[in-house]
Amino acid sequence: MTAAKQIRRLGEELVVASQFLTRIPMPEIAFESDSLSRAVKFFPLVGLVVGSGAVLLQKLLTSHLARPLVAVVVLTYLVLITGFLHEDGLADTADGFGGGWTKDRVLAILRDSRIGSYGATALVLSLLARYLLLSSMPMEHFAAYVISAHVLCRWSSLPLSYFLPPARKQEGQGARIARLTSLPSLLFGSIFAAAVVVFALRGASTEPLLASLLVVVLSGWFYYRKIDGVTGDCFGATNQLTEIAVYFCGVWIA
């Protein structure tokens, strides 16, 4: 493959990652069966773009609105720009694992688009936790932790998709990337994510990095134990938990 074709291919993968994770308008491209699995390496980069938008919004509003209102606006931006993708995954995952006792039952509930009591509760707690943490974040650390959170929560999909198989074979979003993420993609995305976090937080980067890794390991172990793999909803749930964990580091440590 020539250098020009390689650059074009990378550009298309970045577009696919952006189309999948956000509602940011992107040019139309030919979508191939392995497009998403190749694009996962750019998930942390998309997180950097999303987090940077939140930081810009916060800086523009801070001098005009009280901090709780700024947190509401930033949180609204975050859920709108992603089309509630990760919130939906968290709610479905909570319903599935909360209401299902067997693998087949969990997967059946995960396939149901309706939100039950477990899912509604998880969604409310997630939004409340993020609101409280964003509104409590020290102003001088807000940008660094928000950017780090959104890079790391998108990164969480890389190790999950590299190490875990799809819980449903050849069906759903999880099957499009689970065990299809290559080692070079995992390494590229991980190195990029770590570099951004270290640059943003300097000496305070250790705790968010370890917290994110812990969330990924524990959630991945839980998914594998319960359903022998992951689904697309599982990726969304881990994303949400990782975001909250990094915010918590920003409030607790800073």
From TrEMBL:
It comes from the Bacteria. Pathway: Cofactor biosynthesis; adenosylcobalamin biosynthesis; adenosylcobalamin from cob(II)yrinate a,c-diamide: step 7/7. GO terms for biological process: cobalamin biosynthetic process. GO terms for molecular function: adenosylcobinamide-GDP ribazoletransferase activity; cobalamin 5'-phosphate synthase activity. The keyword Glycosyltransferase does not apply. HAMAP family: CobS (MF_00719). This is Adenosylcobinamide-GDP ribazoletransferase. It comes from Tunturiibacter lichenicola.
